[in-house]
Write a structure and sequence with these properties.
By secondary structure, the chain is α/β, with parallel strands linked by helices. The protein folds into two domains: 173 residues, Rossmann fold (3-Layer(aba) Sandwich), CATH 3.40.50.360; 53 residues, Alpha-Beta Plaits (2-Layer Sandwich), CATH 3.30.70.20. α1 packs across α4. The radius of gyration is 18 Å and the shape is globular. Bound molecules: flavin mononucleotide.
């Protein structure tokens, strides 16, 4: 199998999912893999895109134990054409609940053949210096595991072409858990510090930030991914709504014990 024609398909506002996928690609010896970055609103044409790679690695962060709805709708424009797929979720050290099984089903529905799966840990989007949650992850240990995972997939593909299992078994339950969204919350901007450089505008996956006035975020469009908070070069953005701070304190208090990546090949 030609690993150079590997595709990495991901949604990754704060880049931890992307980093894990790049580690897996290294293990696959697919360092020139083509990136399909669904974080960008226009990464995939509205019309749909046919995959002709030999293998794809599909990655998504876990949001409330599920996949981010915006990722799901963008992914649905892709046609898998029977291409083998490695599915990966990245979560902030709490739980991934039904996200991996949802990603498996999404990949199957699009016409991919899921053949391996992984759940990795990334710094929680709500992690701050005061309330760290999985800060700095994926770290060197996680990246070594991502590479090992890539190597084991490569070994499997080299020996078992055409014998991929039809339905990869992964943890999670069907029907998937229901999600209640928190409406009307978006990161705040410290106008005294903001230089209006618009770095946050380009990083926002849902075009929720006004380019002329980056202090203004559409709370209906905002998915609270914290891309703007983490990318701001002068730290003018923060998600300090009391409801989010309460969640962050709960995560910090209850989910600070290190979890390790899980893989299914
Ligand atoms: C809205 C939202 C919901 C989240 N829900 C969960 C969750 O249910 N479990 C968990 O462990 N982490 C959760 N996280 C943390 C992310 O899964 C984690 O930070 C991930 O590494 C982000 O991926 P990215 O860097 O590719 O954007 C959530 C993050 C956000 C923004």
């Amino acid at each position: 199998m030609n690993m150079e024609s590997t595709g990495l398909i991901y949604f990754s506002p704060t880049h931890t999912t992307r980093k894990v996928l790049e580690g897996i690609a290294q293990g696959l010896q697919a360092t020139d893999a083509r990136h399909f970055d669904l974080t960008q609103p226009d990464a995939i044409p509205q019309s749909s895109r046919n995959m002709n790679q030999d293998l794809v690695v599909i990655g998504a962060p876990v949001y409330a134990g599920r996949l981010p709805p915006v990722m799901v709708s963008r992914f649905k424009r892709i046609r898998g054409n029977g291409v083998p797929a490695v599915i990966v979720v990245v979560y902030g050290n709490r739980e991934y609940e039904d996200a991996l099984i949802e990603l498996r089903d999404l990949a199957l529905e699009a016409g991919f053949r899921p053949m391996a799966a992984g759940a990795f840990i990334g710094e929680h989007s709500y992690s701050t210096t005061d309330l760290p949650i999985a800060a700095g992850r994926p770290d060197a240990g996680d990246m070594a595991k991502a590479q090992e995972f890539g190597k084991s997939i490569r070994a499997k593909l080299m020996t078992a072409s055409g014998e991929l299992s039809e339905c990869l078994q992964v943890p999670g339950s069907i029907p998937y858990k229901e999600v209640n969204s928190l409406p009307g919350i978006a990161p705040a901007t410290n106008e005294a510090v903001c230089t209006k450089c618009a770095t946050c505008v380009s990083a926002c996956p849902t075009a929720a930030i006004d380019r002329e006035n980056p202090g203004c975020t559409d709370t209906e469009r905002c998915i609270r991914c914290c891309a703007c908070v983490k990318v701001c070069p002068v730290k003018a953005k923060s998600l300090d709504d009391p409801r989010i701070k309460q969640i962050a304190a709960w995560l910090h208090a209850n989910f600070s014990d290190r979890k390790e990546p899980e893989t299914y090949v």
